[in-house]
Automatic annotation (TrEMBL):
Domain BAR span(s) in chain numbering: 24-270
GO biological processes: membrane organization
InterPro entries on file: AH/BAR_dom_sf, BAR_dom, Endophilin_SH3RF, SH3-like_dom_sf, SH3_domain
Protein name per its UniProtKB record: Endophilin-A
Taxonomic superkingdom: Eukaryota
Keywords, alphabetical: Coiled coil, SH3 domain
SMART domains with a match to the protein in the record: BAR, SH3
UniProt key word Coiled coil: yes
Record-stated family: Belongs to the endophilin family.
Gene3D superfamilies tied to this protein: Arfaptin homology (AH) domain/BAR domain, SH3 Domains
Domain annotation SH3: ranges: 282-342
Coiled coil: 145-217
């Protein structure tokens, strides 16, 4: 392999000069060209956008794929353009175990049958969860990652170039100041101070032009970063819609499971908790709410679908039960309630 020794020495010298220059700026012994206020503001907003996008993306990935080992594995498969492994979710593992246990205990008994039904429900929930994770990755995670790997990397690269142009500009300004201070003195190089000043001023004009051009490039890129938030907002809406569908599907599956379990052994089955025992001793029964009911006046009780409340008969009133929920009491129409059989 051929090495250009002169180029290596020149690059090393330039890098060392910049380190010295930045150190002097930090110590306040050298002047530093500041960016204009608008560009500074855009740069601050761009940095904030990058920081928060990285944080949201990292946390979202952790929510959708809690296992860090799985996240690393998925990242590896993405990099080599291979399909991700189709692994089961925790819910599906639980569901599989429940189904096997139910079959072992016997599907003909109540507990075995319930285990099988609950296990099948967990498997459905696991599939719904997997579908949601895939949708969320497509509509939200991938656009954010593409933004960071594309626009923000370009901005970071151009910002680094701008910083180098700024260092070059300040170095030229220092040479001009030094050349002006040498006017009227004998130059050690044998070149007249006037010639050195003219050369330094030409280099300064070139450096200023390159700095201004690069500043405009960075400004346009940063303005594009600000406008990209509109796209991120659309992605966020899509994610929220996907999440709402996910929870609605889970709720529907759980409601179906509750109805199936309530139908086991010919009716609803409830263990008698202390609250239920107290209700029975006070002549109260239990009832499940068939659909939402909003109280029309203070004498009535508002109830929600599938809620279970205590009830008692109201003398001389065949249309209403007295509903009891903790310290709350009020009338509830009988047509909204299904009386439950409590078994000890």
């Amino acid at each position: 392999m051929d090495f250009n020794v002169k180029k290596l020495v020149k690059d090393a010298g330039a890098a060392l000069s910049r380190v010295v220059q930045m150190t002097e700026e930090t110590l306040g012994t050298s002047e530093k060209t500041e960016l204009d206020a608008h560009l500074e503001h855009l740069a601050e907003r761009g940095n904030a956008t990058k920081m928060w996008t990285e944080k949201i993306l990292r946390n979202m990935e952790a929510v959708l794929t809690p296992n860090p080992g799985n996240r690393i594995e998925d990242f590896f498969f993405e990099k080599i353009d291979k399909r991700k492994p189709n692994r089961l979710s925790n819910l599906e593992y639980v569901g599989t175990d429940m189904i096997e246990a139910g079959n072992d205990f016997g599907p003909g008994i109540a507990y075995g049958s319930a285990l099988i039904k609950v296990g099948q429900c967990q498997q459905r929930l696991g599939q719904i969860e997997r579908d949601f994770i895939g949708t969320a990755a497509n509509c939200y995670i991938q656009p954010l990652r593409k933004f960071l790997d594309g626009e923000m990397k370009t901005v970071s690269k151009e910002m680094a170039i701008l910083e180098n142009k700024r260092l070059d500009l300040d170095a030229c300004k220092n040479r001009v100041r030094k050349a002006r201070s040498m006017l009227g003195q004998q130059s050690e190089s044998g070149i007249s101070p006037e010639v050195l000043l003219d050369q330094a001023e030409r280099e300064l004009r070139v450096a200023q032009s390159e700095f201004d051009r690069q500043a405009e490039i960075v400004k346009l890129l940063l303005e594009g970063v600000s406008s990209s938030q509109a796209g991120h907002l659309r992605c966020l809406h899509e994610f929220v819609e996907a999440q709402a569908r996910h929870y609605a599907q889970c709720h529907a599956v759980m409601q179906d499971l509750q109805r199936e379990l309530a139908g086991l052994s010919g009716g609803s089955y409830y263990t008698t908790s202390p609250a239920t025992t107290n209700a029975l001793e006070n002549g109260q029964d239990r009832a499940r709410v068939l659909c939402n009911y909003d109280a029309r006046d203070p004498s009535e009780l508002s109830v929600m679908q599938d809620e279970v409340i205590n009830i008692s008969e109201i003398p001389d009133d065949d249309d209403y039960f007295m509903g009891i929920r903790g310290n709350q009491r009020g009338k509830v129409p009988k047509v909204y309630l299904e009386t439950l059989i409590i078994r000890h």
